[in-house]
Amino acid sequence: MTVATRNRIHVEANSPGVRESIDEIVDVIVSAGAFVDPHLVVIESDGHLMLGTTTGVSGQPFIALPSSTLVPIDGLTWDEGANTIVATDGVDQLDEVHRTLLDANLHLLNSVHKKSWFLAHHPKAAAIGDSDLCEAVQAIRPSFSPTTSIDAVLKTRTFGLRSTDKTRTSVIMPILELADHHPQGSPYELVDDVLSSRYRPVDDSGLTYVSYGPRRDAIDLAAQYGFATDSPSFLVSAPINLELEGHGTLTIRRALDRKARPAWTFNAAGTTVDYLLLDTRVSLFDSLFLPVRTYVESRGVGRNDAHSLAMRACETVIHMNRVLLADLHRAAARSTHGGGATLAEAAVHQWEVLDAVESLG
After folding, report:
1. What is the DSSP string of 54-100?
2. Which of 36, 111, 187, 331 is least enclosed, having the fewest CB within 10 Å?
3. CB burial class (10 A; 0-12, 13-18, 19+) of residue 218?
4. 278: phi > 0 → left, psi -120 to 50 → alpha, else beta; which?
């Protein structure tokens, strides 16, 4: 597919092929009706691609992608033995625009050696053959699965597009996928089959951030996306089942979908929350103590005894998270793989968050 040049954005890159791939991608998506702010900048640093701007206006869109430019990848198969990312089957099921964008995006990823980076630096690759590390991550994030599959490589930056029947399809988001995550970054906006995001400066780096989700903690980001950060001011508790001293159980799950506030349920057996956010901006009294005390009182326990029991439950939950983080840090520190260092750094940050949460009381 040949497209006349319609737009250009600035590219700061050293790897051969990056600039050409970006130019082709922008040409194709703009010709298909996308908006790309000309003040957007693609930046390459040590093989890592990011978005930035020096003149983008806060609150204004920097990109808007019609669904026709979002490339579905779930039906594709890959050459897992190749040194680069190569599709082997399913490409003929894509339309012309999607095929062109897939080729250009794969060329871009191969230009910065994305697969090699994953194999050398991602925690999912680090955990292969390292049962101690794998079990330590899974104790905190049960959905974690060691792999070096191309699907895992690509899904470090894809978007789950929901259809009208609620099924989710992984799609490549041309250009938008290059934006780094920050909890205060701009969310993805999907309106009338157009996926977009807006400028929202969160620091003085000049980078253009998006949010991969407002409740993804440092372990989530390391385990899924392969990078360590100290930006989250919270952690999501590990799954915990705790006996409430003869008054039922406290069950803390670790739901992956955290768009809604944590939901508590009470029944005869105990109280359950779908996930527990331990946040430096929210008192432990509100997030954990109060629901537990309320539940125990509903079992007929007096106010003073319920207060003491809820306090002990809070202390135990903090302690159990600390133990699991310490286990993860030990296993990660023993690893000689780059992904181990990423997990160790994430564990240290989560420990510091726990300190801050505990100090709030």
Report:
1. SSPPTTSEEEEEEGGGSEE-TT-EE-TTSSS--EEESGGGS-HHHHH
2. 187
3. buried
4. beta
Q: Which residues of 266-277 are buried (b: 16+ CB within 10 A; e: fewer)?
A: eeeebbbbbbbb
Average pLDDT over residues 130-137: 98
Q: Find tokens 């990823």 and name the residue.
A: 109
- Give tens-digit pLDDT for 27-43: 999 999 999 999 999 99
Strand partners, 195: 65, 190
Is 90 exceeded by the pLDDT of residue 46?
no
Query: Contact 88/77 with Cβ under 8 angstroms?
Result: yes
* Whether 105 contacts 174, CB under 8 Å: yes
The SS3 assignment for 121 reads helix
Q: Which residue reads 């006996």 in tokens?
A: 243
Among 1-15, 28-42, 309-323, 325-339, name the one with the lowest average pLDDT. Answer: 1-15
How far apart CA 34 and CA 159 sit, in angstroms, is 17
3-state SS, residue 211: coil
pLDDT for position 71: 97
Asked if residues 123 and 220 have their Cβ atoms less than 8 Å apart, the reply is no
Give the residue ranges of DSSP H helices in the chain: 18-31, 96-111, 114-121, 123-126, 131-140, 150-154, 218-220, 284, 290-298, 303-334, 338-360
Q: Tell me the two tokens of residue 338.
A: 């780059």
Look at the block and give the residue holding tokens 């194709």: 28
pLDDT tens for each residue of 331-345:
999 999 999 999 999
Query: Could you identify the residue written with the tokens 């159980």?
Result: 249
* Residue 331, CA distances (Å) to 46, 111, 199 in order: 27, 33, 39
pTM recorded for the entire structure? 0.91
CA distance 194 to 29: 12
Which amino acid appears at position 263 of this protein? A
Find the angle CA(138)-CA(235)-CA(243) to the nearest 5 degrees. 70
Question: pLDDT at position 70, please?
Answer: 97
Helix (H) or strand (E) holding 168: strand 168-172
